[in-house]
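Predict fold of Tripartite tricarboxylate transporter substrate-binding protein; 340 aa.
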Amino acid sequence: MRTRLKKLSAFSIHVVRTTFLIAACTLPLCGNAQNSLKKSETTAAWPSRPVHILVGFPGGSTPDMSARTLAEPLSKALGQPVIIENRVGASGNIAADLVAKASDDHTLGVVINGNLTSARQLYAKLPYDPARDFAPISLLTTAPLMLVAPASLPGGADFFAAARQAGSQWNYGSVGNGSVAHLGMELIKSRSPGMAPVHIPYSGNPQVVTAMLGGQIQMALIPPGIAMPHIRSGKLRAIGLTGGRSLLAPDVPPLADAGLKNVNLEVWTALIGPARLSKAAQARLAEEVPRIIRDADTRQKLFAQGWQAVGTSPEGLTGRLKDETAILGNIIQTRGIKIE
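Predicted 3D structure, encoded as C-alpha cells:
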C-alpha cells in the first residue's frame, strides 16, 4: 500500500512539474500572440470611413494624375472609398494647409516639392510649417522637367540666343510661385546671363500649356508627361531636360547639350497626412502605399503618364525633403526670391 502511495505521489509531482513547465514555456508565446493580435487590431481599426486625398492643383495636372492612379488600388487595400478632392490655389499651399489642419484622421494630401521644401523659405506668412505640421508617408513619383517652347521658336543653343535678345519681352509660366518649375527657370536665367523672361504663375500645367499655345508665354519647365503629346503633335518644341537623359523622354537631350550645365532638378509628388494622423493610420499607409506604387501595373500606368514610380518609406521621404530643401533654398537665396 505504501509503495502504491509513493508511486502516486511521485506521479502527481511529475504532472505538476510538467504542467508548470508547459505553462512557463508558452507564456512568451502567448504574450507574443497577444501583442501581434493587438498590433493587428490597431492597424485594422483604420480606416473606419472614406479617406479623402486633397490635391492643390486642377484635374489633369501631374499631382492629380498621381493621386487618381493611387486611389483605386488604395481603396481596395483599405476596404474604404478613397476620394480625390481638388482644392486649387496658392501653388498647392491651400490644400497643404487644409491637410495640416485636418483632425478627422481620414484626410491626406498629394503635394509637390514646393509645398514641403521651398514654401517656408519663400512665404513670410505661410499658414503651416512644413517641418512640423505633416506626417510624411511616401515619395510617390519623380520626373525631370522639360524646357518647352512654341514650335515656331528655334531649338538648342539658338533658343537661348533668341531668349537673351528678347530680354524681358518674353514670359515664362509655372504652376505657381515657389514651385520647382518657377525656381528652375530662375536657375536657368542665372546660368544664361542676359536672359530675363518675366514669370507668370498659373494654377496647373494644363493652364501653362494653354497659355503657351495661345502666345501668352514663350517657355516653361513642365513634366514630360504633360509636354510630350504636344511635342509629338508639332505644337511645342522640346529644348532640353533638367538633369541627364530620361526614359520618360528618350529623344530629348539634356539642357547641358545646349550649353546650360548643372540644372539638376526633378519634380515629384508625395503622400502626406497631418502631424496628428494616428499611428494606426500611419502604419497602415506605410505598409500599403509603397507596395501599391511599386506594383508592376501601377508603375506602368504612372510611366505612361510621364512619371517614374518610387514608393519610399516615410523615412525615405523625410531624407528627400531634407536634401531638396537645401538645394532649393540655395536658389532662393542666390536669386533673392521672396513672395508676399
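The CA atoms of residues 248 and 303 lie 7 Å apart.
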